[in-house]
From TrEMBL:
The lineage of its organism: Eukaryota, Fungi, Fungi incertae sedis, Mucoromycota, Mortierellomycotina. This is MFS general substrate transporter. SUPFAM superfamilies: MFS general substrate transporter. It holds the Pfam family MFS_1. Residues 1-38 are annotated as: Disordered.
């Protein structure tokens, strides 16, 4: 055993020998020499818990200056590439979904290409914060990068839809670490919140850029090569990012425990119940109204199990020594509200990112490349608003302003999307998308800063992972909800067509293959396009009050922490 790890049976320095005390004996306060900790020992179990707590406290990460000059530039270039790839794979399949599902003749499974990634991404966002405390930030980052690259190779080589979905899940496991660990790295390198905001902006810019360029790149690959390059392109970029971080991230994060001790600290039960809860939430959202009726036994049982597992998770995490998802953080008002706002933003924005390009393709009849190009104003707005907020934060000293303004702007954008129909002009499309980007860029980064600023430093990594986890929950639920809304609205609208036209739709397999819509007879094509337009309208009507509720929540966020002290 490592010499720095004290055996529970051996006495702390300067204290009495505890083995001589019966387990039923109660000792008054024991305070070893040179220790700031005092505690009361009731039995052997308490002793073991206190020893573990000492190990956690004694090996807390030490903040040291980040690299300087060209080394800093190359380090953050590598981190940017990792964030970009992790975020890119959320959206790059958006414009490629019709072609992928058509190639495998599996339109009904199309949503799982996105949901499998988001499910794994969501689950492991909550784990990397605690794992970085246990195993170290750098080892976990390189592990995540390696897993992501393996998943990308498997997706590109997939020969069946099932194989693609499995490797998309593996990608998600790695992608979760690439994004959340970057935020944790920055928080350990920079103590000043304003300086931290400037560097965390890189991660959010990567997310914003990927959110818009993803559909564009997906369209280019589908039209000019093959959708498989949506995944193969990750390999050279990912390797470069891996090498940059491996070389230039030298901030020490030392642990004295051996591997067995580290593994003992993992909250396996919490991990299991998180996975079970997320699965039982997303499966019925994907299946409801399509594979199974909403009132079917399968859907009802899964939703009931979800609530049961969540209740069990709360019970388990409240009693865990090192909970992977600390319930106490939710008692912090600012953390709870920031997470709620961030989760709703993720739900709404991801839904728009997936289905606005489909509106362009199906209703406006543009190519996959053009549908991606029409999202370019979003990236312009996101880059501008994210950069502006990071600069203004040091002057205004109030992240609440940006969170409130961002949710208000995003609410306006989604509300304007309700106006989308067959006759919407190009100028209106571009302006509405620009407004969406302006709102998006103001929310995520400032929610992360709010959580970090209002949390104890020892919990900062877990809090950063938590806000990313809640955002990812929103992303995954958003895709599932949007798919359910679109599928149910579309089925309802198509059912209004005559029986003869419905027979033609079955012949052309329109529901399973959207590419066949424009091969329909002109009169029927117009009716089907209108049915799709009305379905998209229903979707945006559902999403608008969701982000509007997030806007209302921002008024209850108080300014606390270091920024409040500088006013």
């Amino acid at each position: 055993m490592d010499s720095n790890i004290r055996d529970p049976s051996s006495p702390p320095n300067g204290s009495i020998k505890l083995d001589a005390v019966p387990s039923t004996t109660t000792l008054s306060t024991v305070k070893p020499e040179g220790s700031i900790h005092s505690y009361k020992i009731n039995d052997k179990s308490d002793l073991e818990q206190q020893d573990l707590q000492h190990e956690q406290d004694d090996h807390a990460p030490t903040r040291t200056p980040p690299p300087t000059g060209i080394r800093r530039f190359l380090l953050f270039a590598g981190l940017f590439l990792g964030c970009f790839l992790a975020s890119l794979d959320i959206t790059i399949v958006a414009t490629a979904l019709p072609q992928i599902s058509s190639d495998f003749n599996a339109q009904s499974q199309m949503a799982w290409i996105a949901t499998a990634y988001l499910l794994a991404y969501t689950t492991f966002q909550s784990l990397y914060g605690r794992f970085s405390d246990i195993f170290g930030i750098k080892p976990m980052y390189l592990f995540a990068c390696g897993i992501f690259l393996v998943g990308s190779i498997g997706c590109g080589a997939a020969s069946t839809m099932i194989m693609l979905i499995v490797f998309r899940a593996l990608q998600g496991i790695g992608g979760a670490g690439l994004f959340s660990l970057m935020m944790i790295m920055v928080s350990t390198m920079f103590e000043d919140l304003a300086e931290r905001a400037r560097y965390q902006t890189l991660g959010w810019l990567a997310f914003g850029i990927a959110g818009v360029t993803g559909p564009l790149l997906g369209g280019v690959f589908v039209e000019h090569s093959t959708w498989r390059w949506c995944f193969y392109m990750n390999i050279p970029i990912g390797v470069v990012g891996f090498l940059m971080v491996a070389k230039f991230y030298q901030i020490p994060f030392e642990r004295s425990e051996n591997l067995k001790t580290k593994l003992r600290r993992v909250d396996y039960t919490g991990v299991l119940f998180i996975i079970a809860s997320v699965l039982c939430l997303l499966l019925p959202l994907n299946w409801g109204g399509t594979t199974y009726a909403w009132n079917s036994a399968v859907i009802i049982i899964l939703l009931c199990l979800c609530f049961v597992f969540i209740a069990a998770l709360v019970f388990i995490e409240l009693r865990a020594l090192e909970p992977v998802l600390p319930m106490t953080l939710f008692l912090n008002r600012e953390v709870a509200l920031a997470c709620a706002v961030n989760g709703l933003m993720g739900l709404v924005f991801t839904g728009c990112t997936y289905y606005v390009p489909l509106y362009f393709q199906v209703v406006k009849g543009v190519s996959t490349t053009d549908s991606g190009l029409r999202l370019m104003p979003c990236i312009i707005g996101a880059v501008f608003s994210t950069g502006a907020s990071s600069i203004l934060l040091s002057k205004l000293k109030d992240y609440r302003i940006f969170i409130t303004l961002g949710t208000a702007t995003l609410t306006l954008a989604v509300g304007l999307f309700i106006m989308f129909d067959e006759g919407t002009s190009l100028a209106e499309q571009l302006i509405f998308v620009l407004i969406m980007g302006l709102g998006q860029g103001l929310i995520y980064q400032n929610c992360v800063l709010a959580c970090q600023d209002c949390t104890d430093p020892k919990d900062m990594a877990v809090a950063t992972g938590l806000v990313a986890f809640i955002n990812s929950i929103g992303n995954a639920v958003g895709v599932a909800i949007c798919a359910a809304v679109i599928n149910n609205a579309l089925n309802s609208n198509l059912a209004k067509l005559s029986e003869a036209n419905q027979a033609i739709l079955k012949e052309f397999n329109v529901v399973e293959n959207m590419n066949s819509i424009h091969t329909l007879p002109e009169g029927l094509r117009v009716e089907v396009v209108h049915a799709y337009a009305e379905s998209f309208r229903v979707l945006f009507i559902v999403l608008t009050p969701m982000i509007g509720f997030a806007f209302l929540l921002t008024f209850f966020i108080r300014r606390r922490g270091s920024l409040a002290k500088k006013v």
